[in-house]
């Protein structure tokens, strides 16, 4: 890591006064700037002057830019974008860009920042598509500015727009270029850029940028450092997060409840509840009052760990007023334990206390009844959810669809699925079926032998821009293999490779199982060898599948070779292996196949100095 904690200590020592707020000008300044623009127009030919082009397009859009009638200018977002599109469709030369940049300065001078941001955002989008560099835009803004404070604001907006467009690397490059003009984005924009860098796991770049911020005079604070603490915790580096928290105090930054909450919540998620509780009591002794978010996090941790008594102790000790998060934690625990009577009572208790259950509350209890399974009650709560105006989530629908599939109510599952993918539902509620939802439908169809319908669902999944995962492909390959349609199974296999999804042991087992069922052992063995070549390690299930296949055709030599291989790899044969050997010896017309199978396995195990008593084993069988 380029910038470690030692660097952080050095950085914290260089805190300076942050930039002051930029004052805005009144509309009179806008009028004077517009008059200046009119003056420019009179000195240049209207045909070649970019300002004349802007004026012409504005006039076509019914904009009155006469300073005497300034209040009639219809500067709204849609008009701005339409005007810019018209302008850049005609030309994208430097003079035109200069005129647009000057117009942006005028808007910021007149405190019309919201309109300026819309123009800059559209400018960024067009410049990215037409390969205009961020450095060129910065240079143009600098060349057209007349007020340093306005320029500072405009450049901050420009960086912000690159971040909004997910062009984080360009935003970072732009802040570096701004240094040559002795400029730096506002504190808020700098924080946004830090968040974006950390969100992309660019921890080293984030440290470097923090260094630049401090060198430019933007002081560090607890909010900024909490961003880094959160990133370390999300990566599981709690020791680094704690060290950073301790370094804050050494340099005059007092950790707040948010910083401690990040670490305590991470400890709870890792089931380190003793450490989380210890830290909770420690911060109270430091004079920091735990809020409901922090306490709810600890309560949820105990509930998920199956310790509701300890959760209640935390609630009682800190006199925590029950909230929706606490109730959701307890309902989740009760549903996981299958205690749906108590879960329903607690759900009803929320209404009595004036708390309104949210989507998580309903989804949790619906999931509990789906697991129970009591589909009537599950749909009752689903109906209540809709009646209360609470929009179900993808998880809500997925739980119901999965339960319907397991209870073989495919008609209802299909109805729910089509409700999810209805265009008006997706637009109004923002509900889009994910790969998990599709996998449940595909798995249900495959189990019932509807492989063609499963492939249709796969096509639908791809058409909607969702990437199939390992489970998707494995389910379809399994169904096609069981059906004996190996040609189609291999087509799906190759399609899997095209989508950069590598087959795993389960996928190979699905195809191998099909070959073994069809007694096509030559192809099965070839696939097994190829699987070993690419570095996949077979498990006991895969070995037994292949052993059973060879035994079913009486090829005991290959079966014994596979048992020897699995023993060398630390996997011991089990009762399924023995049954396969019994089948093999039956094919050989051996008098006592059960004893012969046990003796053969004993012999193979003894070669690796592993002992077991055949008589005891047979007696156990």
Keywords:
about 625 residues; mainly alpha; 35 helices; globular
Strand content: under 5%
Q: Low-confidence spans: pLDDT under 50, at least 5 residues?
A: 1-51, 63-73
| Counted beta strands | 0
What is the typical, i.e. mean, pLDDT? 80
**Largest sheet geometry:** none
Structural class: mainly alpha
Task: Tell me the layout of helices and strands.
Layout: H1 5-12, H2 27-42, H3 50-60, H4 77-90, H5 94-109, H6 113-129, H7 134-143, H8 148-164, H9 168-178, H10 187-199, H11 203-215, H12 222-234, H13 238-250, H14 257-269, H15 273-285, H16 292-304, H17 308-317, H18 324-336, H19 340-352, H20 359-371, H21 375-387, H22 394-406, H23 410-421, H24 423-429, H25 435-447, H26 451-463, H27 470-483, H28 486-498, H29 505-517, H30 521-533, H31 540-552, H32 556-568, H33 575-587, H34 593-606, H35 614-620
Summarize the structure.
The chain is mainly α and 621 residues long.
Structural notes for this entry:
The chain is an all-alpha fold. 71% of the residues lie in helices and 0% in strands. The protein has 35 helices and no strands. Helix 8 packs antiparallel against helix 9 (168-178), helix 13 (238-250) packs antiparallel against helix 14 (257-269) and helix 16 (292-304) packs parallel to helix 18. The chain is globular and about 100 Å long. The two termini are 59 Å apart.
